[in-house]
UniProtKB/TrEMBL annotation:
InterPro entries for this protein: PRTase-like, PRTase_dom, Upp_B, UPRT, UPRTase/APRTase
Name of the protein: Uracil phosphoribosyltransferase
An annotated GO BP: UMP salvage
Superkingdom of origin: Bacteria
Cofactor note as given: Binds 1 Mg(2+) ion per subunit. The magnesium is bound as Mg-PRPP.
Gene3D superfamilies linked to this entry: 3.40.50.2020
Keywords: Allosteric enzyme, Glycosyltransferase, GTP-binding, Magnesium, Nucleotide-binding, Transferase
Assigned protein family: Belongs to the UPRTase family.
GO molecular function, one term: GTP binding
Length: 210
């Protein structure tokens, strides 16, 4: 498998992912748990942010302490399921900027069609974290990353919850410079592009639609 891929193998994430996979999990619980998982995945995706030393004073004494250098961050959610992860990421980093990309998959061809694209300025100065719970065929993520690069993005990561080997291969081939961070690498896609075993349609699970 691609060396671009990091699987975050933390017991809390694996436990919560099992709840998300379970088809008896309610919409309310699904929404809450995906937010919690995103918080932990957010720690992983930002683990190489640079620190600087600052002088502070604790109630006891002065000290030099680490502080974020201030690298600008931008989360870009692929609508609509990306928003389920976005909430947890913003709990962790409330100051991050947010972009949205609207892409739908043609259910016949599985091709990606873009209908919305809005991002903050100075993308080239930011760490851009593209967010979608499911990396399935890879078509949507590839298209979103293409557009972000056209808009100026340079340092980018792709964050998902569950990836299919087919999607990882295709995305890594198209964007070898974009690391993929996921909580699980599943077995394969089925013939209508769903991940097996997966968790079903992430958007439907988050919003209680069918
Ligand atoms: N999108 C989803 O929501 N689920 C899948 O299994 C594949 C794509």
């Amino acid at each position: 498998m691609s060396d671009n891929l990091t699987i975050v193998d933390h017991p809390l994430i694996q436990h919560k992912l099992t709840i998300l996979r379970d088809k008896t999990t309610s919409t309310a619980q699904f929404r809450q748990v995906i937010r919690e998982v995103a918080f932990v995945l957010g720690c992983e995706v930002t683990q190489d942010l640079k620190l600087k030393e600052v002088e502070i004073e604790t109630p006891i004494e002065k000290m030099t302490a680490p502080y974020l250098e201030g690298k600008k961050l931008c989360f870009v959610s692929i609508l609509r399921a990306g928003n389920g992860l976005l909430d947890g990421l913003l709990d962790l980093i409330p100051s991050a900027r947010v972009g949205h990309v609207g892409i739908y998959r043609d259910h016949e061809t599985l091709e990606a069609h873009r209908y919305y694209f809005k991002t903050p300025d100075k993308l080239g100065e930011r760490l851009v974290v593209l967010v979608d719970p499911m990396l399935a065929t890879g078509n949507t993520a590839i298209d979103a990353a293409n557009e972000l690069k056209k808009a100026g993005a340079k340092a980018m990561k792709f964050l998902c919850l569950v990836a299919a080997p087919e999607g990882v291969e295709k995305f890594s081939a198209a964007h070898p410079d974009v690391p993929i961070i996921t909580a699980a690498l599943d077995r394969q896609l089925n013939d209508v592009g769903y991940i097996m075993p997966g968790l079903g349609d992430a958007g439907d699970r988050i919003y209680g639609t069918k």
